[in-house]
Amino acid sequence: MSYSLLGLFLTVFIDLLGFGIIIPILPNYVISLGANTVITGIIAGSFSLMNFIMTSGMGQLSDKIGRRPVLLLTVLMNGISYLILAFSNSIWLVLISRIIAGIGSSNISVAQAYIADVTPPENRTKRMGLLGMAFGLGFILGPPIGGFLKSIDETHGIKYVGLFTAFLCFLNLMMIFFFLSESNQNPNKSLVISFKPVQNIKRFIFLPEVKNYLWYGFIFISAFSIFQVLSTIYWKEHCYLNDSQIGIFFGFIGVISILWQSIGLKFLLRYINEYKIILISSLMMSFALLTLIFINHNTVYPWIFLILFCISMGNGLINPSVTSLLSQNAPVGEGGALLGVFQSLNSLARTIAPVIGGFLYDVNFSYPFILSFLIMLGSVTFILKFKKTRK
After folding, report:
1. pTM of the model
2. In the chain, what are the domains?
3. Who contacts 384 (Cβ-Cβ below 8 Å, separation ≥6)?
4. N or C: which end of the chain has fewer CB within 10 A?
5. Per-residue confidence band for 40, with pLDDT thresholds at 50, 70 and 90
């Protein structure tokens, strides 16, 4: 692997590692600062909101001024955000940290554009797979690392989390500065940058060929995001788990999800089509989300691993299957734009769902998981409208 590609790999890996590190610890840390679960949901969703607003604009900015400056700027922002987190002693500082991190982590499209610049068309799929690997490793390694670092010191552990992740970001910054050359040899200086993701969503969200896939994806990500944020609080308050144990749980989800995505999906497609895979996975995931409310400190082991296996299976199978169906049904010449809208809707779901889940958790701890169960069960109505693409 060249230094340039290694730098890109590390950029995406550290983006996702930082996100993964935060997953098991952020909600409970914000609660410890005096926030309720609604505020916790807002802080968790702020990262995705910035992703939603900034991603397309960052790609355009890299078309205008070059890939390298944008990557340097965004990685620097990530490093600063984790330094702020390390010394955050108030809810506002945590919120500012997550907003800056959300802007900085909107550089995935820039990394993809860099690979497209330097790679012949016949090798792009393989090279893009490196980014997929970086995503996977970030989600697998991030939560256990975050949980371990936080558990070193229950009161001041956030400092270790922030400093460790900031160090990785600044190390990555140095690699980009010294080893990453500019790939965009013809920047479009006259390009007008637009941060208007809603315009593209409007183009596709009511298009008959693809609307059901888009709405289903929004529902699926909403249910998973509610689980992702509120389960950490539930496990600590009702199952008496520590940050390290919660981190291991999310690492387990990452491993199982990637195994299903990389191996299990290929095996299942030999016998059933994407439509049936999504249907079965949705039903399994919906009931797994519901059973979470029956877990307490006396029953958490071993049942939690069976529940998380089912949720991980859904996470690993549903997203690539829906993405595949979307690409197969995209209007001619607009596949890239449609998949961009799909990712924007996913970010929007990750912004809204934790806030709703947080409000419900304040009413009754079981309500967010019941809502996740109901909307996943209700998503079957969209699945039944899917166009079957395989016999």
Report:
1. 0.85
2. 1-179 (1.20.1250.20), 196-384 (1.20.1250.20)
3. none
4. C
5. very high
